[in-house]
Amino acid sequence: MIEQSEPFLPFALPEIGEEEIAEVVDTLRSGWLTTGPKAKRFESDFAAFLGDETVHCVAVNSATAGLHLALEAVGIGPGDEVIVPTHTFTATAEVVRYLGADVKLVDVDDATLNIDPQAVQTAITPRTKAIIPVHYGGLAADMPALLEIARRRGLKVVEDAAHALPATSAGRPIGTLDSDATVFSFYANKTITTGEGGMLVTRDVALAKRARVMRLHGISRDAFDRFSSKMPSWYYEIVAPGFKYNMTDIAAALGLQQLKKAAQFQQCRQAISAGYSTYLQDLPLLLPAKPPEGQVHSWHLYVVRLADGAGVRRDDLIERLFSAGIGCSVHYVPLHLQPYWRDRYQLHASAYPVSQRAYERLISLPIYPRMTPADVARVAKAVRASITGA
Asked: Do 269 and 256 belong together in one domain?
């Protein structure tokens, strides 16, 4: 057992500075706390960050909400199937069930743990209506292949980009590809945070309009529009049975300042990943796949897998790291093992060998901008000691 002699190093911490605090205080003093001018500005700034004036951005209170809105807007409903990687968090799949459609889980690529295009191709049936690729850990999925499959088979594509800000695919920022919609997460441990929140991005004007209506009870006008336009502020129309998915101005205030630091945060994460790869390269570990030349990896996660002959079980490694004061996690317990998905669709681990094997051996190490080079070295030293005893 490794004894802890230093303060506990958590798995993740947000990087909140005085700029974020000042922006939130300004919001509190403004009297506009819910969806208002800052949420609108955050949407505009996000589009500018992506560098594509043709995209429409819709701020929501979570990426889960954004995925739900996107699928609803493209017409997913009862009788439909949506293809989802088994190696993801349940939110990616549960939104399909919200709409009464069925989930078709597929395996992932062994090198990247991203959805396997060949598995997608094999899984398509006459009921298939959409694909939800997940950019696992911040490395873009094989979007050219997936978009080509979708084009040929007439399928919608909604990207789960919860890990992928800022990341690129074939030189283009995630969020500007030719998919129907892309959804980012701003949860507390993500690459930028609004505490809770997300952003739906699309080029489809009709999709964006539908998402804006449905994010706030199906009201024909946003709260900001109702209280700032020349029309009577009290009048509104319910045009659909919508949801309560709007982002508050308090959350958007955080996002406005976090977005300015997104590139800097990515550079910090990339430096941490490079440090880990140097320190850990001689251990019996499979290190994360590097992005293709010229492609940006957001490095939301740094996931290692125990190799054959490592001499330690994954769960024992986690226990030893926690004893040494190092926080870590597992991304993910695959959906095919989760009781709801397993039982509903009668799933067996043998149908998902890549994800299953990865799950049994993987561990996510701490990676966030507040980490110092000394922190990175400490984690690496603890990993080495936990595996080799040295």
From this structure: no
Domain count, the chain: 2
- Residue in the structure block whose two tokens are 């045009």: 239
Catalytic residue among 190, 209, 230, 261, which?
190
38 included as an active-site residue:
no
pTM of the full structure: 0.96
φ, ψ at 147 (rounded to 5°): -65, -35
Range of the domain at 327: 262-388
Residue 61 covered by a domain: yes
Query: Is residue 187 within 8 Å of 165, Cβ to Cβ?
Result: no
DSSP per position, 174-214:
TTSSSSSEEEEE-BTTSSS--BS-EEEEES-HHHHHHHHHH
Q: Of the candidates 260, 285, 302, which is a domain's last residue? A: 260
The pLDDT profile of the chain, 390 residues, written as one tens digit per residue, is: 455 578 999 999 999 999 999 999 999 999 999 999 999 999 999 999 999 999 999 999 999 999 999 999 999 999 999 999 999 999 999 999 999 999 999 999 999 999 999 999 999 999 999 999 999 999 999 999 999 999 999 999 999 999 999 999 999 999 999 999 999 999 999 999 999 999 999 999 999 999 999 999 999 876 556 555 555 567 888 999 999 999 999 999 999 999 999 999 999 999 999 999 999 999 999 999 999 999 999 999 999 999 999 999 999 999 999 999 999 999 999 999 999 999 999 999 999 999 999 999 999 999 999 999 999 999 999 999 999 987
Of 260, 285, 320, which marks where a domain is finished? 260
